[in-house]
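User: Design a sequence. Structure:
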């Protein structure tokens, strides 16, 4: 079967890389010892450089995914009218919100009562697409300025803290403060991804698409990738080093050099701080700079996942969760422990559950390799059936 596509390979390779790395974090969530009973990679009492590093490399996933969603929207819109692009973004955004709440939450918890609804990255991308669908009618310069203002300015709002479940508080949780509320007895909604900074990221990603549009200068693109990538990293060290702005929690000297390094790089993700975005998007742009003309077995492997990210995302959560259940069965434990809800998570029953980090890495590699042939077949099917409109939503 001949593969027919005009997609930009370097963007898909980067997206594929972060999708593969993302699976490591989710495998760690389900398989690592005591992962369900505490945020151990960032806990100074329990972490180490290897555990934190395992978490740190996965920090690149969400910012790159959201940023490239904006870039993909720009490139998709090159052959569409503004009205067509706006309609697509808004309808796909609504679809992603539905998938997050109904499909993704079930796959994460296997709880048919939906006792805990966690609004994560798919939700954030959905909201961002709706906002982008409305904003694309503005001049690109205005969109760029708006994106920069949000990304660089939203940390000025860190001091605003809301509590309770009144309308004002819920709106703030939605925008800028990770929090949640109980909407009925036994049902809890949690905003893991407050959307304001992510909107800034997708707006910048949309403007970034200018560098990849048809006829764009490769030399100019590489110049901007290099300059902006290096500048972002430099700004991260500037803001983070002096602790004067750009992150909710300043770093501090710890009892060991190892933990001081962890403290320094432990930038806030919920919501993503300026420091967090600079330290993730900067290296991502440099990756695009260096990968521009490289094609080999590794890039071909990553390309597959980068071209079917939504399909891969949904499938990998299902497989990881099922894998955790199989692990319990093999070790003679109660498989029902992996049907998660508020009671299970808060009872302490999962204390002591899990495996070493070495096992986590082995399971991660196995799951990625297992998913590869399925993603490759779907990639081919999608590329050769572009006339089927529904495929653009999957």
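Assistant: Done.
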């Amino acid at each position: 079967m001949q593969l027919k596509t005009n997609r930009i390979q370097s963007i898909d390779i980067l997206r594929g890389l972060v999708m593969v790395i993302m699976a490591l974090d989710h495998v760690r969530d389900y398989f690592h010892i005591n992962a369900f009973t505490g945020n151990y990679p960032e806990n100074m009492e329990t972490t180490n450089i290897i555990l934190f590093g395992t978490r740190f490399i996965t920090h690149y996933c969400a910012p790159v995914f959201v940023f490239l969603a904006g870039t993909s929207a720009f490139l998709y819109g090159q052959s569409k009218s503004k009205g067509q692009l706006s309609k697509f973004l808004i309808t796909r955004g609504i679809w992603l919100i539905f998938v997050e709440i109904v499909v993704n939450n079930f796959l994460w918890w296997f709880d048919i009562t939906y006792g805990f609804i966690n609004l994560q990255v798919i939700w954030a991308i959905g909201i961002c697409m709706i906002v982008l669908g409305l904003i694309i009618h503005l001049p690109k310069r205005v969109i760029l300025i708006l994106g920069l203002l949000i990304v660089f300015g939203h940390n000025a709002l860190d001091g605003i803290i809301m509590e309770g479940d009144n309308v004002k508080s819920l709106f703030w949780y939605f925008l800028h403060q990770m929090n949640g509320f109980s909407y009925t007895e036994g049902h809890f909604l949690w905003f893991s991804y407050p959307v304001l900074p992510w909107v800034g990221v997708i707006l910048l990603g949309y403007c970034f698409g200018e560098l990849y549009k048809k006829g764009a200068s490769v030399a100019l693109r590489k110049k901007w990738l290099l300059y902006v990538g290096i500048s972002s990293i430099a700004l991260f060290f500037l803001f983070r080093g002096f602790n004067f702005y750009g992150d909710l929690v300043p770093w501090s000297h710890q009892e060991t050099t190892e933990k001081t390094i962890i403290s320094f790089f432990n930038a806030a993700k919920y919501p993503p701080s300026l420091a967090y975005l600079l330290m993730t998007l900067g290296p991502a742009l440099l990756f695009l700079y260096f990968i521009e003309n490289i094609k080999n077995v590794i890039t071909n492997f990553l390309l597959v996942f980068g071209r079917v990210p939504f399909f891969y995302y949904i499938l990998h959560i299902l497989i990881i969760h099922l894998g955790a259940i199989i692990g319990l069965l093999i070790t003679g434990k109660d498989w029902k422990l992996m049907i998660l809800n508020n009671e299970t998570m808060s009872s302490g029953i999962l204390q002591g559950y899990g495996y070493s980090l070495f096992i986590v890495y082995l399971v991660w590699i196995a799951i990625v390799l297992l998913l590869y042939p399925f993603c490759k077949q779907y990639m081919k099917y999608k590329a050769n059936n572009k006339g089927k409109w529904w495929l653009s939503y999957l």
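Residues 92 and 393 are 6 Å apart (CA to CA). Residues 9-393 form one domain.
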